[in-house]
Amino acid sequence: MRKYEGLPREIIALRVSKEIEDNSYVNLGIGIPTLVSNWLEGRDVILQSEIGMLKTGSLAEGDAADQDLINASCQPVTEVEGSVYFDICESFAMIRGGHIDVTVMGAFQVNEAGDFASWMNPSRGLNGVGNIGGSMDLASGARKLFIAMEHTTREGTPKLVRELTYPATARKKVHKIFTDLAVLEVVPEGILLRELYPGLRIEDIQSVTEPKLLVAPDLKEIEL
Amino acid sequence: MNKVVKDMREALSGLDYGATVAVGGFFAAGVPRLLLRALIEKEVKGLTLACGSGPLLGAKDELDALVENGQIRKIIDSYGLFRSASRGARHPLEQKVRSGEIEFEVYPMGTLSEKYRMAGAGIPASYIPVGIGSMVEQSVITNIEGKRKEREIRTIDGRTCVLEYALKPDFALVHAYSGDSEGNLRYRKTARNFNHVMAMAARVTVAEVENLAASGDLEPDSVHTPGIFVHRVIPVPRIAFEITNV
Questions:
Q1: Domain assignment of residue B245, yes or no
Q2: Chain A residues in contact with B79 (beta carbon < 8 A)
Q3: B220 is a domain residue
Q4: Most C-beta atoms within 10 A of its C-beta, which of A166, A167, B196, B225?
């Protein structure tokens, strides 16, 4: 299977940040989504961390690290003016209660119905258990759910699939998908290709994507 | 009322073989490390450790000892396995989960936090619309095949929900930044996480506090957990630890 060179992870995160409107409350998951915060400085966007913090600051380096202050990925973070702490039930009331405007998560697979799989890798052989964390709550309560991920696995296997072969996190919840090769939107008819990596053709993207792609009439290069 | 106990032995008295013990903390933040060390020293076995989000991954030395001593029968968590597959495969915890020697039950984090809250608030069960379309809808998620109890499903206002039950631990071990002799607690920054709701849930809540205040010294408007939820208070020193990747 052919593997194309595309955007580095940091730049996928930059593209996601452009899709987040000012005055939004946003939750960022583990992996590429965490990197989105690097591009939100100076923006009027408030980050919610499910450990129990609103207005999460940047990652804390060296002496600035405080053992009582981490994000939900177990990284030391900083407090900024206006930061707020709260307990876990209140945090998940924000998440499940529909108060978060945008949730960005990573995924193993997404299908054309907007189902996605992120919580368990069956090849770990753990007899049907894995790390759910806050993923299902976040998907259930999200007003907008974005997936940020590589377009294929390291071996070149498509992650945009017809049928999930990994256990689902949630069904019909994904709105947009940001990969190293393309920006796509889940629409009632399937997956719509909106933007592609400069130099790639529609058929290149199709060759590393299982479902037949719909193509936006105003298809363009990825806008950064 | 004076809830301050004289030592760790008294703090954990009555916590015996087979107890269900809630452990506060979210990865490295707010884990009751000194109470866990006392649990290790006590060598009590057959434990069900009811967690919220990987406190044992954040307190790895304590996890190693608990697993090595064979004290854990079961873990309940939302994120209790190492993130890295290769790291996990090398760890005795994961080997025992694979062999079934340790039972491992997993819930969505918000659902798990509500299970503790329900126990504390006297609500036996509630319908929760999280996990629909996933394995959560089919059965309890566990590594032990015979324990995958089927779910009760009901549609409420057009939303499919699963019936989720309260989880009432025998003991809760929680960590607070400050507390007074009557058990009123304050936490610091993101170390609050599951500590408050677990204190509400358990039959016996034991709080380790870094700063012990006299009764009345905590600002009444700034108490996070009212002392009615806390049964024993043990002052502990603030210990520095390294935040490592989970």
A1: no
A2: 131-133
A3: yes
A4: B196
| DSSP one-letter string for B155-223 | EETTEEEEEEE----SEEEEEEEEEETT--EE--GGG-TTHHHHHHH-SEEEEEEEEEE-TT-S-GGG-
Write the single-letter amino acid at A144: K
Q: Indicate if B74 and B151 belong to the same structural domain.
A: no
- Asked if residue B207 lies in contact with residue B179, where contact means CB atoms within 8 angstroms, the answer is yes
Test mutation, A49, A61, A66, A67, chain B, max B CBs within 10 A: A67
Mutate to test the interface with A, among B109, B239, B241 (most CBs of A within 10 A): B109
The C-alpha of B87 sits at a distance from chain A's nearest C-alpha, in angstroms, of 11
CATH 3.90.1010.10 fits A9-33+98-221, yes or no: no
Give dist(CA B56, CA B80) in Å, integer. 7
| A189 in active site | no
Q: Which amino acid is it at B202?
A: A
Contact A129 B143 (CB under 8 A): yes
Farthest-apart Cα atoms in chain A, separation: 52
Answer yes or no: is B119 within a domain. Answer: no
Contact A52 B192 (CB under 8 A): yes
Q: Which two tokens stand for residue A61?
A: 């380096």
B146 and B213 inside one domain: no
Q: Nearest Cβ partner of B113 from A72, A89, A135?
A: A89
Range of the domain at B143: 125-165
DSSP A135: H
Domain ranges across chain A? 9-33+98-221
Residues of B in contact with A85 (CB under 8 A): 187, 189-190, 192
* Domain co-membership, B84 together with B47: yes
Interface ipTM: 0.96
Q: How many CB pairs under 8 A join A and B?
A: 178
Q: Which of A5, A10, A21, A50 is catalytic?
A: A50
Statement to judge: residues B193 and B210 lie in one domain: yes
> Do residues B38 and B62 both lie within one domain?
yes
Q: Do B51 and B87 belong together in one domain?
A: yes
> What's B43's domain CATH number?
3.40.1080.10
Q: How many domains does chain B have?
A: 2
Write out the two tokens for B233.
């208070």
Domain-embedded: residue B160 = yes
Q: What is the pLDDT along chain B (246 residues), one digit of tens a residue?
A: 999 999 999 999 999 999 999 999 999 999 999 999 999 999 999 999 999 999 999 999 999 999 999 999 999 999 999 999 999 999 999 999 999 999 999 999 999 999 999 999 999 999 999 999 999 999 999 999 999 999 999 999 999 999 999 999 999 999 999 999 999 999 999 999 999 999 999 999 999 999 999 888 899 999 999 999 999 999 999 999 989 889
